[in-house]
Specification:
Layout (H helix, E strand, L loop, with lengths): L1 H14 L3 E3 L5 E4 L2 E4 L9 E12 L2 E11 L9 E5 L5 E2 L7 E11 L4 E11 L13 E10 L7 E9 L2 E10 L2 E8 L6 E5 L1 H10 L7 E25 L4
Parallel strand pairs: 10-13
Antiparallel strand pairs: 1-4, 2-3, 3-6, 4-5, 5-15, 6-15, 7-15, 8-14, 8-15, 9-10, 9-15, 11-12, 12-13
Bound molecules: 2-acetamido-2-deoxy-beta-D-glucopyranose.
The site of 2-acetamido-2-deoxy-beta-D-glucopyranose has 9 residues, from strand 4 and strand 5.
Family: Belongs to the glycosyl hydrolase 12 (cellulase H) family.
GO molecular function: cellulase activity
InterPro entries: ConA-like_dom_sf, GH11/12, GH12
Length: 243
């Protein structure tokens, strides 16, 4: 009896403090989000990474990932990310707005690092579908940072696109059964990003042949490290899909 009470108290206390995950595919609940390590390219390198949930409040989350990776400088080692649990399943034609805010900072970083800080948004022809699956039609990346000369999938097809108060270069190319569209900041690091993601969706519907009947299947935000070491703090992140 006494033992189980103590166990319960410990469990409650643990849920209110920072929790670090370190396994290759570990995930943990993070309020309105799920935080995942997703060290999918780990075998291409030597190193390690762990991710810590710092706090959640309503639709906002704060978290940190600490990484160091060597070898194969052109291979992504991981995509530690938070994915919104319910901001999904909305058809682009039904979307009225998709407000998002992301404040982040490199607390430490080696010189140089090869890494991006990015949104990874998945769309498909059905409301539900796992990211990077047979249900995926488009992967829409928004790079708020790309350091060390790294490049997105495919090739640059357009430059100097003004959207959401910033200027972007657009890359496009295939990956497995889906197309990747990557908006890369032409303004350098955007560490305080406030935008309506609908601006990006409208752009690809109007200019890249993306059907407005596509459904948003997942919105993830995180970082793709290639090589170097860093501690990346997301001070605050939120996103919503409004119909
Ligand atoms: C997190 O990963 C980094 C990079 O591999 C490592 O230096 C650090 O010791 C790890 N921290 C924890 C708490 O596991």
């Amino acid at each position: 009896m006494r033992f189980s009470t103590l166990t319960a108290l410990v469990a409650v206390a643990a849920s209110a403090t920072a929790q670090t995950i370190s396994g290759q595919y570990d995930c943990e609940p993070a309020g309105a989000y799920t935080l995942c390590q997703n060290l999918w390219g780990k075998s291409a390198g030597v190193g390690g990474q762990n991710s810590t949930l710092l706090s959640t409040s309503g639709n906002t989350v704060s978290w940190r990932t600490v990484w160091q990776w060597q070898n194969n400088p052109n291979n992504v080692k991981s995509y530690a990310n938070v994915e919104h649990n319910t901001a999904k399943g909305v058809q682009l034609s039904k979307l009225t707005s998709a407000p998002t805010a992301w404040q982040w900072v490199y607390e430490t970083e080696s010189n140089p690092i090869r890494a991006d800080v990015s949104y990874d948004i998945w769309t498909g022809t059905t409301p539900n579908g796992q990211p990077a699956s047979s249900a995926s039609s488009f992967e829409i990346m928004i790079w708020l940072s790309g350091q060390g000369g790294i490049q997105p999938v495919g090739s640059q097809i357009q430059s100097g696109i003004p959207l959401a108060g910033h200027t972007w270069n657009l890359w496009r190319g295939p990956n497995a059964n889906w197309q990747v569209l990557s908006f890369v900041s032409a303004d350098g690091d955007i560490t305080d990003f406030n935008a309506d993601l609908k601006d990006f969706f409208d752009f690809i519907v109007q200019n890249q042949g993306v059907s407005s009947s596509q459904f948003v299947q997942a919105i993830q935000t995180g970082t793709e490290p290639f090589t170097g070491s860093a501690s990346l703090l997301t001070e605050s992140f939120s996103v919503a899909l409004n119909q």
